[in-house]
Amino acid sequence: MKNFEDKNQEVQEPDLTGTYTARDYISWKTDELMELIRGKVFKMAAAPSSDHQKVVMSLGTILYLHFLKKCEVYSAPFDVYLIRSSEDWKSAKNVVQPDLCVICDPEKIHLRGCIGVPDLVVEILSPSTRLKDLGAKRDLYEEYGVKEFWIVHPQDATLAVHVLENGKYRITSLVTKGQSFQSPTFPDLQVDLDAVFPDE
């Protein structure tokens, strides 16, 4: 794990109408959680529901135990700086906080978060984040090459598996409580949705 610090940070608050990079993002001194998407500031929603948090905990535990000593698993708040290998991370215009992410390259893990593209990203839908997760963030994960992307709907108890093929996402599985699926990217990862969704 590396530490990337900017000793010339300026203390400032973001103007929501402005366009910014990661260099600006790390300079802000605020208690509010936010994301940068194509340079625009998106404030994070209020505290998620108990159902959302139960799914984060149960699915996060499944992933943590499966990837133990092989890959790192992180839950939000955790900054992911989406850049390509040739790009300077401080110039990144996309800094997102997935609900869960799996990172198998230790060189991408730093004290500030993930500098680069995770191998697997999970977004758990809520009314306040649904449009962003299914639209702008899904498009970013596809554009930057996240190999596998899961969309979880706690109210419907469903999980959709998106896999990157020829630069575009294809849904390979749509499963619900009572079913299980095998990850296309990690063939030894099988998830039983009865273990993901809380009982009524």
From TrEMBL:
<keyword id="KW-0378">Hydrolase</keyword>
<dbReference type="InterPro" id="IPR008538">
    <property type="entry name" value="Uma2"/>
</dbReference>
<dbReference type="GO" id="GO:0004519">
    <property type="term" value="F:endonuclease activity"/>
</dbReference>
<dbReference type="InterPro" id="IPR012296">
    <property type="entry name" value="Nuclease_put_TT1808"/>
</dbReference>
<dbReference type="InterPro" id="IPR011335">
    <property type="entry name" value="Restrct_endonuc-II-like"/>
</dbReference>
<keyword id="KW-0255">Endonuclease</keyword>
<protein>
    <submittedName>
        <fullName>Uma2 family endonuclease</fullName>
    </submittedName>
</protein>
<keyword id="KW-0540">Nuclease</keyword>
<feature type="domain" description="Putative restriction endonuclease">
    <location>
        <begin position="25"/>
        <end position="193"/>
    </location>
</feature>
<dbReference type="Pfam" id="PF05685">
    <property type="entry name" value="Uma2"/>
</dbReference>
